User: What shape does this take?
Amino acid sequence: MTANFRLPVGGRVNRDEALRFSLDGRPMLGYRGDTLASALLANGVHQVATSIKYGRPRGIMAAGVEDASALVQIEEPFPEPMMSATTVELYDGLIARGLPGQGRLADRPDPARYDAKHVHCDVVVVGAGPAGLVAALTSARSGARVVLVDDQNQAGGALLGSDEYFDDLGSPAAWVHEVLAELRATPGVLVLERTTAFGAYDDGFLLALQRRTDHLGAAAPKDVARQRIWRIRAKQTVIATGAHERPVVFADNDRPGIMLAGAARTYLHRYGVLPGRRIVVFTTNDSAYTAAIELAETGVDVPMLLDARAVPPEGLVAECAARGIEVRAGHAVTGTEGREHITDVHIAPLAGTGHPDTIMCDTLLVSGGWNPVVHLFSQLRGALRYAPELGAFVPGEELPDVQVVGSAAGALDLASCVRQGGEAGRAASEAAGFTRPAPVPLPTSDARVAEAAAMVLWQVPEGAEPTADTRFVDLQRDATVSDVLRATGAGLRSLEHIKRYTTIGTAHDQGKTSGMIAAGIVAEALGVKIAEQRPTTFRPPYTSVPFAALAGRDRGELHDPVRITAMHSWHVAQGALFEDVGQWKRPWYYPRPGEDMADAVLRECRAARESVALMDGSTLGKIDVQGQDSGEFLDMLYTNMMSNLKVGRIRYGVMCGVDGMVIDDGTVIRLAEDRFLVTTTTGNAAKILEWMEEWLQTEWPHLRVFLTSVTEHWATVPLVGPRSRDVLASLAPELDVSNEAFGFMSWRDTVLDVTGGVAARVCRISFSGELAYEINVNAWHGRALWEALMAAGEPYGITPYGTETMHVLRAEKGYPIIGQDTDGTVTPQDLGMSWAVSKKKPDFIGKRSFARSENNRPDRKQLVGLLPANPATVLPEGAQIIESAHLPEPPVRMLGHVTSSYASAALDRGFALAVVRSGRDRIGETLYVPVADDVVPVTVTDSVLFDKEGTRRDG
Amino acid sequence: MTTDRRTAVPPGADLPDHPSFLWPNPDPAKSYDVVIVGGGGHGLATAYYLAKVHGITNVAVLDKGWLAGGNMARNTTIIRSNYLWDESSGIYEHSLKLWENLEAELDYPILFDQRGVLNLAHSLQDVRDSVRRVNANRLNGIDAEWVDADGVQELCPIVNVSPDVRYPVLGATYQPRAGIAKHDYVAWGYARAAAAMGVDLIQNCEVTGIDTVGGRVRGVRTTRGRVAAGKVALCAAGHSSVLAAMAGLRLPVQSHPLQALVSELLEPVHPTVVMSNAVHVYVSQAHKGELVMGAGIDSYNGYGQRGSFHIIERQMAAALELFPIFARAHLLRTWAGIVDVSPDASPIVGLTPIDGLYLNCGWGTGGFKATPGLGDCFAHTVAKDKPHQFNEPFTLERFTTGALVDEHGAAAVAH
Assistant: This one.
């Protein structure tokens, strides 16, 4: 059955551009400017899908985002689940499928791009209907920066669904065109079409989704972001989002062909499409009369209008009579017939005289009144008020810097809408700091105005409770009046509970038409006033937003910044493998051909212990601490004393949290009386800077201290091993590198013989126990320094090493890695670092906690070494430590765990560091480590396993 | 039409019906043996076990709003017990064992589904921490496995385990007995059963004061009048510190928003639960078909039950890194609950310096999974005036003594 329901003329579609599309395999044609829904209706197709629970045919009930039943799966050009046919702009090649409830995700990657943009403005206006247009124009004329956001492909709002005569201009379209032209020509004004404001947050923050290329289908340019998130920050917000018509609930109210009356007007005027050939209208208010009259004027058979009100509006009734429409007052629809399409309407008087009747039709238009779109206002936590004259919630309070105008605020006629829009535009401009603009001329129209008050009717009363209820409250969830009554019967009173019990309002449309009706039916059932009920909370987003749009550009490589050092390209060229440490890429090890990781690490370790090796240490966090109270500040942050450090000297320090647990460590060098350079672990640099700032700003604002991250300023190369002094000497002619002149834990500035002289700061520190120098140069010279060191060390077989070798070398010396050997439950004392905890300082972060009973238990876990009985064994890191040689039934008492474990070249065996209960008292004991199905015996040792006396440090 | 789609009702489209009666709506009586403040999952479960196990039925559960409308209605329903420390795994495993029989116990279809939970590791340190936790779990008798990237893909084929992503998946811990349940159903199951045993469930009744005399609790003041009580048990996550302050107690908890979101209904694609602390996202697909997702807490303190949108945007970026096929799924709804976060990311459950006042708070982001276990243990604590063995470690005093149960290291976002 293909039929043409397109009028020969009219509508805002481009009849010169025909577009091919299909639904469920049925090919059809539409026009540019159609939605999928209008194109389907033009082809006589009402049914789009079947319902989720009962499999009932469901059709197009609305013309916008409020539609609850016309859900489709887009299959081509790219699969997209659960779209409302009423919001999909038609494009050539669109292939869609009616959805029975669950959408389908593509099984291939989405090729589209997405992005986000920030915009700051004085006034943001949401909605380009008459109220919003006037508000935007008024503000724009004041010089304010205005952003006008509208979800349609053209401005006009409700005017798109009307054809009344407008001022001197003739049509509403002409007026809209004129306003838009001025807005677009005004500097500082941004008009965003196809852009849905979906989230409103504090302080004028508004989020909107712009659909930039969807309407182009497969022809969309690949290099243009398909969708964009606009992050709009406005001084003033004007919400002019209009109203959604709501239906009335009656038996079999879900058949395809049953549509909201206002939607029919939109299809008629905007798309030039008739919803049917023989149309019955059922209303509780005056607005649907216009639909009946206009449709009749196109030549459609409109045999009857049912007005639930006992006293209908005289003028409108007369207009109907003139067009052959019989108005039956005090009547309602009590049921419908039809299978895939409505065929008959059963009607009956609501009260008093009259008889039930059945009317044949192919379309039933319904209007139960209008719900202001208060979503954004409610998201802002604006309180809603029940307006009994509307049967709807309206904004119930003033919010600072926010105005709600037009039908979103409950206004019912054009004059009120544009007047409110103008006032809001003026007020917003003034509040944003502009001279209060003059009013703009307000348009007037010959649109029919309401004559009589609307009646609030949620459902058509039934004599007896039906056995199989077909009075659908939420079409998408297949939830009926009986379901609501079952919920109230179960003892539920809160709308939130009833929503959850019935699932009403939880579907794709989030209850845009069903929520209010459910509230009304609940109130009737419980005998309470709606005004006493709290509506369910409106939450972002107003309409659904693709995940990919929210992720924007932050995907793949751009998901999180990749930080690389000045020497990175060298490491890559040498075939290094990398480890992610925080955001940094650090060389992990440098395998030579034929080497596995174990071989490479043993070789790198040997080079450091026997000759000379170097690594890229640039990623260590570096914080420049300046100001006359720097020493006092660092004394509070570190457990040991820093203020008495001499200029030119370096000290190792430990930082604890307030709980006394180690959070970071590193070296502190004193550059001047009022200046220190603090190093942090690579992964913790940002956190430590924040930590320091938090204390400085919130607890000790009196301290004159300034903190700057300088991590990226420097390239840092630890040069390690017995021959490191020779290599440094060959590059630092001005530096006396002797142990006497340049002792351990001191630093010197010098000029290196690198590319014509590079200033360097050399620190004599060691994280390996070997003679070592940490050479720092401006990051610009990092690669030159590295290459110069490689060349200078060549006679000694200088060897680059990565983080794994660094870990082995330090573990052999028992130096912990914070975050690997500690987990936030380890004190400096547990690490054997009581020496780094000042007994003299009156206070520092963590000090108080050291006095707690738990911190002084003898059975705390302490850092020790473990030697597996079999020297070839390398214990897995993360293995637990137990007392018995045989694994008992769970729960098994755990004494601690293996924190670091390696094969050591220097020790010629496997070894591990571990935290173990009473560990230091257990030195010499045998404990056990369950590994897979085995239990491995280990001997507890001191944590320092190599060069206990420290003889290698000075070379 | 050419195709008859009436038969094509999709799997999982429908949920089991709720019982035709849930609970009555009594007015508060003048006095109760026990008043539980907070009618969320914990409060209702506590009431249930007080009545069921201890025979104490002269109990009122007071809620300032609608029953189970706080975090119980807002969480992402993940249930697991694979915590690092003995203390934590003790109470969570106790809870998991109760979950395993809860549907029968409550005679309510709570949709408890042991579909397994994967906690992904993205760095070498993640791997070390994960292996450590697996080993600890196994020695504690909790099902736990370490699976490599291929194993992750086998369990959840839609996870992108390519080494070419920003933070590749290096492996995961897997707890097969972990899973999800339907939060409202759980709460309502407890509520119905508690009410049937005589517990008064009183809604729209906000506690405005706690009366004490001589260091002993005497009752509460509410928006519906004074209610005398022999014992008062606080179960009001998010507002615990506010309530405790009414009794003069200052709690070491911070209140933060924690956001969650859902997509539209989708055909089944995600067979398990995937959590990633490193990129801050956790995802499951609920029974009806919607993707349910959460992320880390909002960093600023607050009581407003909504968060900042940039958290959601970051979470989506993380989700698409892990699950590229989610690209065109749609965000349908976002919301937030308010979680109490304690300094060691572990709960505070037990006695207080005030006789007859009992405290249950600080569950942070992990309270839902503990519902049955906490209910059982807290009911025991209230009934016996003495902690149950599983909540004994979680005293308020530990922040003075230092006997912390610090789960930060093991699960930076402890869900």
In short: The radius of gyration of chain B is 21 Å. Residues 114-177+254-341 of chain B form a domain with the D-Amino Acid Oxidase; Chain A, domain 2 fold (CATH 3.30.9.10). The first helix of chain B runs from residue 41 to 54. The CA atoms of residues 82 and 137 of chain B lie 6 Å apart.
